[in-house]
Every structure is written in C-alpha cells, then in structure tokens.
What does this fold into?
Amino acid sequence: MLTFCPTCANVLMVRKDAGGNVRYACQSCPYTYFIDKEITKVIRVHKKEVDDVLGGEDTWKNAQRTENSESLAVRPALVRPMQRVSPALW
Ligand SMILES: [Zn+2]
It folds into this structure.
C-alpha cells in the first residue's frame, strides 16, 4: 500500500530507527508518521460490465438450431451463418 506525504505529496517510505520504532518518512521533507498500530485500507473493486461480443440475445433469436440428441443429453447448438471476407488474391 502506498502512502503519500500530506505536505509535499511524495511517496512515504517505511523506516525503522535504532530504537526499533517503525515510521513513515518522507524523502523530500521532514514529515514523519510513527506507526503504532496496523494500518489497513479496504478497497472495494467493482467488476467492469462486459460487452456481449456475440451480439446479444436478439442476434440468436432467429438462428438455426441443431437437432437435440436424446442420447448425448446436450443442449442444441445455435448456428448462424456469417459472411467471411477473404483477402485479395494476386
Ligand atoms: Zn514530504
């Protein structure tokens, strides 16, 4: 976790002095913060909404379906023909 100096906004470094005390210290100014308890910060991360790359439900509404096989117990596949552009020939 990065902590920044409240006076000059530089990154604070964790230093341990000869007495065993741990502190945040700024490298640019004399700011010092003695660490006497655990410091935690909880950050809630929200998942980004994913774009539907296959076009959504409406794209597959009129798609052809394969026949459902009773022996395999699998769902029928949706088939949508797409036009493919070939590279130019020499
Ligand atoms: Zn500073």
